[in-house]
Every structure is written in structure tokens, then in C-alpha cells.
Amino acid sequence: MPRPILPVPLLITRPLDDAERLAEEVRGLVPGISVILAPVLEIRPLPFEPPSEPVDLVLISSQHAITTALSCENLPVVCVGAATARKAAAAGLTVQATYPTADDLVHGLTGRKGLRALHLHGRHTRGHVAERLTLAGLETQERMVYDQIARRWTADEQRRIFAEPQLVVPLYSPRSAQILSENLVGYAGELTLVAISEACREAWSGPVPKTICVADHPDGETMKRVIASKLS
Fold it and tell me: Where are the membrane-spanning stretches (predicted)?
């Protein structure tokens, strides 16, 4: 009797809250999948220094900035990503606008002269949002409000992952791609990588994948669809 074909596990390495949410959402698209949660980043809040001048808008590109945004005197927020916007609204923030990517946010807010904005972000960030908006006419301050600490896997996590003959692995940032490359040194199975951007693909230096694809658009909804297509 032939052996049953087992589903290829989905290895999610995002910070734990993000990983759990992604697992639930992908399961909604592909029921019955096997998921391994093994974060390579840990989020740690940093002290918040209020802006030196009053601002009109708060810009957040990650759910990890929402707690700090709640302390910003009920100011409206502009979010990157639908998931971040939903969580911000659920926390009681007034979401004025949502853009799929940081570049879309910069383009959408360009020319908003006479206003001041505050961008809340992590220690490791890309896109130079505050600088680009200020040059475009929207005076923008920025504050680092959380850190993304590299996390090595436990021995149990590594044993489970390395025992899998195949894995589907999403890559959501160049930094996490670099850390994951190191964590997977010595893995001998087949890897299917799904990168949110070309920068993530270029950051990969781990085992040579069987397949690597880059999402057509660098946003969460597109990533979920591509991940699901590799699992079904």
C-alpha cells in the first residue's frame, strides 16, 4: 500500500503574535495544513520620548507600534497594512487612512503641507519614511519604539524543523531572511521560499532553495495568497 502524501509544513518565523495570526489566516485558506512556529525575532518595547513639537498625524507601519500610538493624545493614525489598521482600530485608535506598503504611504501623503506627522517604528527599519515625507512637504519626526532582537531556535525547535524533508518558508524582511539563513545552516531538505520583496530574496544566504518566488506586491494579502498556493 502506498504511503499517504503528507502536507508540506509551513514554517513561520515571524515574531510570535504575527506568526500566530498568519498561521490562523493561512489555515482559513488551506485547511488541514501543518504549521511550525519558530520565531527568529523577538519584539521588545523601548521607552518612548514624546515629539518635541505638536503633531497632527501618527504613522505606524507595524502592530508593534500600536501601544505607543495609544499614548499620543487621541491623534489620528495612518497605517501600513490592513492587518495593522484593523488591530489599531480594535485598540481604539482612529484610523484615518491605510496604505498597503510604506512606499504607498509616502506617495499618498506627499504634499500634505502645513501638517506635522510622527512616524513610530522599530530599531531595524527601511524606507526612510520620515526623511522622504519631510522632503515632500509633510514635516515628519520619527521615534524608535520597539526593538527586534535576533532569536536562535531551541534545540527542540531545531530538531523538529531539520527532521522535515520539505518546508514552505515565508520571508517578510531582509533582516529576518538573514537570521533564518543562519538558523537553517545544515538543513538538507527541500525549501520553497516565498519572499515579500526582492530585497528579502537578495538577503537569503541559507541552503539553496528548490523554489523561490517573490510576491507581485509587497503586502500581507498578496503574501497569504502566494503562501496558500504553495501549500495547496
Answer: none
